[in-house]
Amino acid sequence: FLLYQVPFEELLHRPASRLCKYSTLVEMISRATLSSHADKWNLDTALERLRHIESDVVAGKGLRDKVLTRV
Questions:
Q1: Burial of 59 (0-12, 13-18, 19+ CB in 10 A)
Q2: Which segments of the chain does DSSP mark as H helices, in order?
Q3: Residues 6 or more apart from 69 whose CB is under 8 A from it?
Q4: Confidence grade of residue 71 (pLDDT, cut at 50, 70, 90)
Q5: 11-25 residue pLDDT tens
């Protein structure tokens, strides 16, 4: 595991970029799941929460970028 070769900022962005992948994956699974399936509600709830977290991260990144440009 070679952390020293990866810039610190890249390490910070990785979890945020994975959120988009997770929401896409959950959305695809949800679309393929019958509405009568026991997990359908859980998938839709998870997708809604992932999207909410995603929007918070994007809003936070925008705020962080504005703060950094003032410095």
A1: exposed
A2: 8-32, 40-70
A3: none
A4: very low
A5: 666 777 778 888 899
